[in-house]
Amino acid sequence: MALLKGLPESTLEQIAQRLRLTEGAETLISQLRRLGYKTAILSGGFSYFAERLQKRLGIDYVYANTLVVRDGMVTGEVQEPIVDGQRKADLLRELAERERISLEQTIAVGDGANDLPMLSIAGLGVAFRAKPLVKKSAKQAISTLGLDGILYLLGFRDRDGV
Questions:
Q1: Is this structure's pTM higher than 0.70?
Q2: What is the topology classification, in CATH, of domain 2-160?
C-alpha cells in the first residue's frame, strides 16, 4: 500500500478504463441475474474498481478494500475493515443470512489463498484459474474455460438457453 502513496486519484480512473473483464464474466452474471440469483464481489482488491464492475454488470453486493484518498491523492492507507480471507467467509455467511438462504445454496469463486475460507464454506466452491494450492483445496476447479463455465457446474447446458 505504501507504494500507492501520492498516486493521483485520476490515475485510478485511467487504470479502471483499461481493465478487461475475465472471459465469461458478462455471460455468467447476466444468466445468473436472469435466473434470479443474487451476486456479490467479495474482494481483497479495491472498491474503486469493484464498484465499477458492479455498475457495469448489475452485481447486487460489493465488499472490497477502500483506498483512503485525501485532496485527490491516494494516502497509501486502506479503510477498516480489511477484506481478507476470514472477512470473505464472514461476508458470505452474512449475505446468505440476508438473502435467507443456507450456505449450501451459495456459490463462491476464487483464485488465491485468501479465498480458501470462503470456498470451504460455500455449497459450491470453485477454484477459477487458481494457484495450485487453491486448485488442490477446492471441491471444483475450472482452469481452461471462462467464468461462464460455472453455469455447467450448476447443471445448465447450451441447449438450456445459457
A1: yes
A2: Rossmann fold (3.40.50)
